[in-house]
Amino acid sequence: MLKILGKASSINVRKVLWACAELRLPFTREDWGAGFQPTSDPAFLALNPNAMVPVIQDGDFVLWESNSIIRYLCAQYDGQPLYPAEPKLRARIDQWIDWQATDLNRSWSYAFMALARQSPAHRDAASIEASCQSWSHTMGILEQQLARTGAYVAGQDFTLADIPIGLSVNRWFCTPFGEFSKPALPAVMAYYDRLAAREGYRLYGRNGTA
């Protein structure tokens, strides 16, 4: 059986858990990461030298990096409805997965650590404001895309791209901006509600964890 190493509150672990739910794929999970077994343990480092979760063990196959993992699971376990083989359809999905991992993640990093995690190392007001503005800008790009499709991020159907994007949307709505204004994003809000119809999202997306 597939084994997932990583604490369930991690946004990147939750990508893998949600993908497994969509694929109806059974798994076991072990808690690794802050507050649990340390990823600096030699046994964990032998699996992922980056000391980061998640890691999967699928038989004797070991893989890390959450986006690589969810792509692998779709390829290995009949996930073509989520991640089609046709190159142009797949490229559109990959485009949004990669955008979430780069542009969107970078935009929120300082603001999220300051406002949601209350990190003492992230207390610079100018940096918080700049990150809030950057985050609002990237969410505005998502707003435009969802207004165009009227459904999901890569088109009319739910795809693998909606897993990392959906978790990012949950993080957006769960993070208080305090004195900094958060723009109204009606298409993103409708998308947020649309995702809530999916069991995997209710379990691992909109579950009170940002």
Give the C-level CATH assignment of the largest domain.
Mainly Alpha
Q: Could you tell me the CATH topology label of the largest domain.
A: Glutathione S-transferase Yfyf (Class Pi), Chain A, domain 2
Secondary-structure-based class equals alpha+beta
Number of strands: 4
Main-sheet strand order equals: 2-1-3-4
Distance between the termini: 28 Å
Domain count: the total is: 2
Please state the second-level CATH architecture of the largest domain. Answer: Up-down Bundle
Largest sheet: 4 strands, mixed
Radius of gyration: 17 Å
Q: Estimate the helix proportion, in percent.
A: 40-55%
- Write the H/E string, N to C: EHEHEEHHHHHH
Please mark out the parts with pLDDT under 50 across 5 or more consecutive residues, or reply none: none
Beta-strand content estimate: 5-15%
Counted by DSSP, the helix tally is: 8
Tertiary shape? globular
Q: Whole-number average pLDDT? A: 95
